[in-house]
Write a structure and sequence with these properties.
The chain is an alpha/beta fold and 298 residues long. It folds into two domains: 6-160, NAD(P)-binding Rossmann-like Domain (Rossmann fold, 3-Layer(aba) Sandwich); 196-286, N-(1-d-carboxylethyl)-l-norvaline Dehydrogenase, domain 2, CATH 1.10.1040. The protein is built from eleven helices and eight strands. The protein has helices at 13-24, 40-44, 53-58, 70-77, 97-109, 139-149, 164-191, 197-224, 234-251, 256-270, 282-286; strands at residues 6-9, 29-32, 48-49, 62-65, 88-91, 113-120, 132-137, 154-157. The chain has an eight-stranded mixed β-sheet with strand order 3-2-1-4-5-6-7-8, sandwiched between helices. β7 (132-137), α6 (139-149) and β8 (154-157) form a beta-alpha-beta unit. It is elongated and about 65 Å long.
Length: 298
C-alpha cells in the first residue's frame, strides 16, 4: 500500500523524532535542516535529504514544520510562499494563539491549507498512540491527513480556529507544572518523615484519578456559572489546608504553594462564597491583580 509523502522542515530533537516516525510507518519522507549534518542519521534510514527549503516543499503535498519559533517559520517559508499553493502546512512549532492565527491567514493567502499543532509529549513519546497531538485549523486538511498524522500519536482535532492548539498547549503545560509542583511539595513533606518518593508516588498517582473526577464535575459548574457546594465547600477546604501548612512548617518544607491556595480560598470565603465548591476559585484567576477591564467602548 502506497503511503503519503511527507516533508519535515527542522531537525532538532523533536523534528527528527517526527521524521523518524513517518519513516518507520513507511511514508516517503523528505527532510531539510539549516545544518545539513543533522539529516545524516535520517538519510541513513531512508529519508530523502533536500538541499533547499524550496526543494523540500516541492517534494510533498504535506509539509510539517518544527523549528524554534514562529519568526523562524516565516523566515523559512516567506521566500518559498509561492510554492505552497495546493499544499497542506502543518506547523507544530510552539508559539501563541495569536501567532497561529496570523500564520493561518498568511498560509491561506498563499493558497495553502493550514493546521497548527501542539505536541503533548517529549521526543521519545513520538509514535506512541498514548501521546496526544493537538490540531486546529482547516477541517478539510485534518480529514485528509488524519491517518498520516496518526503515526505520530493520537491526533485530536480541536476545531477550525487555528489558535486553539496553541491555547490548549499552553494551558495544559501550566496544568502540568502545577501538578508537578503539588507532587514535589507533597513528596518533600512525606520525605521529611522518611517516606521514599517511590513509595509515595503510586498512591499520589492513584489519587490524581479521583482529582480528575472533581475536575469533570467542576467543569460543568464553571460553564454554568454556578458552584453548588454539594461535595467539599471552600470553607471546609480552607480549614483543611491549615493542617498541610502546619505539617510543612514543622518539617521545614517551603509552603509558598499551599499558601497561595489558602490566600485564594480565604478571599472567596471573605467575599461570602465559603459554601461554594472549589470550582468557584476560577473567578479569582479571571480577575488577576492588576488586570485591566476590557475596553467595551461604553
Amino acid at each position: 500500500m502506497s503511503r503519503e509523502s511527507v516533508t519535515v522542515l527542522g531537525l532538532g530533537q523533536m523534528g527528527s523524532a517526527l521524521a523518524d516516525a513517518f519513516l518507520a510507518a513507511g511514508h516517503p519522507t523528505t527532510v531539510w535542516n539549516r545544518t545539513p549534518a543533522k539529516a545524516d542519521a535520517l538519510a541513513a534510514r531512508g529519508a530523502r535529504r533536500a538541499a533547499t527549503v524550496a526543494e523540500a516543499v516541492e517534494a510533498s503535498d504535506l509539509v510539517v514544520v518544527c523549528v524554534l519559533d514562529y519568526p523562524a517559520v516565516r523566515g523559512l517559508l516567506d521566500p518559498v510562499a509561492g510554492r505552497l499553493a495546493g499544499r497542506t502546512l502543518v506547523n507544530v512549532t510552539s508559539g501563541s494563539p495569536e501567532q497561529a492565527r496570523e500564520t493561518a491567514a498568511w498560509a491561506a493567502g498563499h493558497g495553502a491549507r493550514y493546521l497548527d499543532g501542539g505536541i503533548m509529549t517529549t521526543p521519545p513519546g513520538v509514535g506512541s498512540r498514548d501521546s496526544m497531538f493537538l490540531y486546529s485549523g482547516s477541517p478539510e486538511a485534518f480529514a485528509a491527513y488524519r491517518e498520516t498524522l496518526a503515526v505520530l500519536g493520537d491526533p485530536i482535532a480541536l476545531g477550525e480556529d487555528a489558535g486553539l492548539a496553541s491555547l490548549y498547549d499552553t494551558g495544559l503545560l501550566g496544568l502540568m507544572w502545577s501538578v508537578f509542583g503539588g507532587w514535589l511539595h507533597a513528596t518533600a513533606l512525606a520525605g521529611a518523615d522518611g517516606v521514599a518518593a517511590r513509595a509515595f508516588t503510586p498512591v499520589a498517582v492513584r489519587w490524581l484519578s479521583t482529582v480528575g473526577l472533581f475536575m469533570e464535575r467542576y467543569a460543568g459548574q464553571i460553564d454554568d456559572g454556578a458552584y453548588p457546594g454539594d461535595d467539599a465547600t471552600i470553607d471546609v477546604q480552607l480549614a483543611a489546608i491549615e493542617h498541610l501548612l502546619h505539617a510543612g512548617r514543622a518539617r521545614g518544607v517551603d509552603g509558598r504553594l499551599p499558601e497561595l491556595h489558602r490566600e485564594l480560598m480565604a478571599k472567596a470565603v471573605a467575599e461570602g462564597y465559603g459554601g461554594d465548591s472549589y470550582g468557584r476559585l476560577i473567578e479569582a484567576f479571571r480577575r488577576a491583580p492588576g488586570r485591566e477591564e476590557p475596553d467595551t467602548g461604553v
